[in-house]
Amino acid sequence: MSAHVHARADRIRMIAPAVTVLVIPGPSLGGPDDLDPALVRLLIEADERGLQTVALASRPDDLDATPVALARFVATDDEATAAEAAARLGAHRTLRVEDASVAAVEAWLDRVPRVESRTLRRRIRTALRKIAVVRWVYERMGAR
Amino acid sequence: MRADQPTGPAPRAEGRDIVGTLGTDGGLFGTAAADLPAADGPDNADANATAVHGPTARIDDSTVAWAPRTIHSSHLTDATTARTADALVLRHTEGRDELLSGISGAVPVYVADDASTARFATHLSALTTQRPVQADWDAWADVLAVGAPLGGRTTVHGVRRLRPWESVTVEDGTVRFQRERWPWLDVEADASARIEDVSDALRAEMRSLAENHWFVSTLSGGWDSRILAAYACEAAAPTASPRAFTTSSDTGIILEELVAAQVAHRLGIEHEIVVPRVDRFEHDIRAFVQAVDHQTSYHVWLVPLLQRIAGLDGLVLDGLGGGLMLGGDFTGGDDRSSRVAGLMKYLRGAEQVLRPEAAHGVGERTRAAFDAFDADWPGVADHPFEATFTAYLNRTLPGISQSPYGLVARDHPVATPFLADEVARAALRIPAAAHAGGALYPRLTALLDPQLAALPTAQSRVPWPRPHPRRITAVESVEVLRRLVTTGPAAALLANGLAEQDTDHWTRLLSRTGTQHLLRSLAMLNLWCEAHADHLTGPGVEELLA
């Protein structure tokens, strides 16, 4: 079972607390062509919470859809789409998967990296900064 | 042409620029003042003398005004009103040629002092083509420490950029630069000044612009572009609704794009998000520094948006100066010296990028530039808007202004309404304390749309710690920057061993504001050397080592 919990962005209205990855299908996989106000609100909540967003694409023109273009990762099962995604986003943000359909997400979800700010090192640092004395030291360092 | 060389916002054959020479035998406008453009027009070019492309207005027999947007002589009664309308003014009288900058100083105009004549141009490259070029190393130190050259310098020795309300005169074979007291320093705070006055001034400005242009909004998730978009919607004819475009300033998150989408939806305007491509990064950085004549490397991320709107015939609204005139930016810090140190923030952690002698040398030169600033602008240090004017004259004008007036104006008419004289004056009449914390922003917005005023900005929603890496830290971009930084004379300034460090190390440097700025600026220095390779003279980059 994946360490990630995912939700499909075009099928929910609120993001449950346990969700760590928001999945956004491309138009050819039944996802939205464009942003609507509800999707914008959802993506804002995801960004505020520092969630990963992964778009599913099976054709190069999926990448032109704004919700897909804004995703942090693109997962694709198509050679040409993978090449184009790597050119647009960079190789590190392109996931080559066997099946990019929504039903097959769990098979590769573990390959989505944890969000940098949720790594143990960053969480410890963040927690320390909440302690007044440590925060004071940080601020003094920043002011120099 | 190399495949990775810019094809984007390059100057058009019939762009908006002005180039000429003061003090030639034939007079500023060729053989006689009669050679002045005969009437207001979009494109008055005189092939024999001063070349003027783009909107001009003739004020009288000896005077013409130029701006990167439509201006009308009916609104301009003399040189002063033209300058107050932020136009550049060219004046030729018997034996005397003058070039006068506008009230904001935001439109770059460069002047090369040739002893008995002075060449001028709105694009610096027009003054250096096929001529010997020498680096101004004080200016390059400022680029590294602050973001752009200070004190009216440019990266080219002997070429100056005119500051607000400055002029250059050639008379009897003598070139003289002169700066009168800047009128914005004399705007007096008034406890009875109201935000409604700013709103009225902004409305009038937008109505005037709407007479000749339809609007393109470069909408972000912040206040400035939101306010301009809202006022543009009010001023535009029902059949000429503004169009909005948004791109990412590479913060690692997409809140800018998403909040912009909310604003556009609220205003009911067409909106498009432009997402940059990693494989165009080298193209973008080359295109940007070329377009701004290698004066700053601030806004490389804007290039893809410009390519998207290429060919659209709208006036691009830019929020330049809004954060200072209205938003109370850069007012932090306990005292003036700490605020000046704050402007040199890019040198924090400089030893990770620069060798110690370079970090020291750059710091010394830029500190001297700030000392000179205090002597040069005696009205600023004790002014109630001291922090505003210090940041405006040392950051906004030399650096940020290049984004609208260096890059965007190459291909589009541009306006920066927060720097329109009446708007700026109305904002400066409101006491400085009332500007703190951006308190005026929602009030100005609410006068048009209270719901829009209540919508949180992207900045107010940014999570901390930053959850995602910036786009510039993509492996592909890191390798481009590493090559641009380590290939060329600027490599001599690098900290020992940096060139050989692994990609992860470079990624960490590019994920932090200060060190990323230094690396971008060093890349620009190498690109500047590359652009002038056949004509470079004078001392080399070693000058920066103290």
Describe this entry's structure for a reader:
The complex is a heterodimer of chains A (144) and B (546). Chain A has five helices and five strands, in the order ββαβαβαβαα. With 144 residues, chain A is α/β, with parallel strands linked by helices. Chain A folds into two domains: 6-113; 115-144, no CATH class. In chain A, strands 1-2-3-4-5 form a five-stranded parallel β-sheet. In chain A, β2, α1 (37-48) and β3 (52-57) form a beta-alpha-beta unit. Chain A is globular, with a radius of gyration of 17 Å. The N and C termini of chain A lie far apart (48 Å). The relative contact order of chain A is 0.15. The model of chain A is unreliable at 138-144 (pLDDT under 50). Among the domains of chain B are: 186-328 and 409-461, Rossmann fold, CATH 3.40.50.620; 471-544, no CATH class. Chain B is 36% helix and 14% strand. In chain B, 55% of the residues are buried. The chains are: A alpha/beta (144), B alpha/beta (546). The A-B interface holds A 35, 37, 40, 43-44, 47-50, 66, 69-70, 72, 87-93, 115-118, 122, 125-126, 143-144 and B 253-255, 257-259, 261-262, 265, 273, 275, 277-279, 338, 348, 461, 463, 465-469, 471, 474-477.
